[in-house]
Amino acid sequence: MTYQDPRDQFPGTHAYTRPVTPAYETQAEQRYDHAPVPGSDQPHRQPLVTAPRVNPVLFVGGVLMTGVVVALAVGLVAWVITTLTDRTGIGIALGSDAVTTYAIIGFVTALVAAALWYVLQLITPAPGSFFAWIAGLLVIAAVLIPLLVSTNLATGIATAALHLVIGLPILALVPMVGSQSQRR
Question: Which of 67, 50, 133 is CA-nearest to residue 106?
Answer without folding.
Answer: 67
